[in-house]
Write a structure and sequence with these properties.
CATH class: Mainly Alpha
Number of helices: 5
Helix content: over 70%
Order of helices and strands: HHHHH
CATH superfamily: 23S rRNA-intervening sequence
Distance between the termini: 20 Å
Strand content: under 5%
Radius of gyration: 16 Å
CATH topology: de novo design (two linked rop proteins)
Structural class: mainly alpha
């Protein structure tokens, strides 16, 4: 696995960024825009996913990084759940729902694999130091 020097290098963070962009895109549509509560909840959950990956990376230890990745995974699950609400209220169509749900599931699997990988690392460092 390639060594990340900054959180922006992480594929899971990049995927979470795409998810945030897509969530904001759908919540700016007319029907969704009026439901302030759901709109706020789903945008916050998607942003939380991305932010927790970044925050965990910036912490000093692998243990803390794993903890924040688990929080990110939970927030991603919250996004998935809220997508069902958006579908049930006809804020999004079936095609949009399926695409976003599939993206969220893919991100969840990637986060789980990344967490499992980090748990097997022999060192406590979250990343190797940059080469000089």
């Amino acid at each position: 696995m390639a060594t990340a020097q900054q959180f922006e290098d992480l594929g899971v963070w990049q995927d979470a960024r795409v998810m945030v962009r897509e969530v904001y895109r759908i919540t700016n549509q007319r029907a969704f825009r009026r439901d302030f509560s759901l709109r706020d909840q789903i945008t916050r959950a998607s942003t939380s996913t991305m932010s927790n990956i970044a925050e965990g990376f910036e912490r000093g230890s692998r243990k803390e990084f794993i903890q924040f990745l688990n929080i990110a995974k939970g927030s991603n699950g919250e996004v998935r759940s809220q997508l069902y609400v958006a579908l049930d209220l006809a804020y999004i169509d079936e095609e949009t729902f399926n695409a976003l749900k599939d993206s969220a599931l893919k991100l969840s699997r990637r986060l789980a694999k990344f967490i499992a990988y980090l748990k097997t690392c022999p060192t406590n460092a979250r990343v190797r130091p940059p080469r000089k």
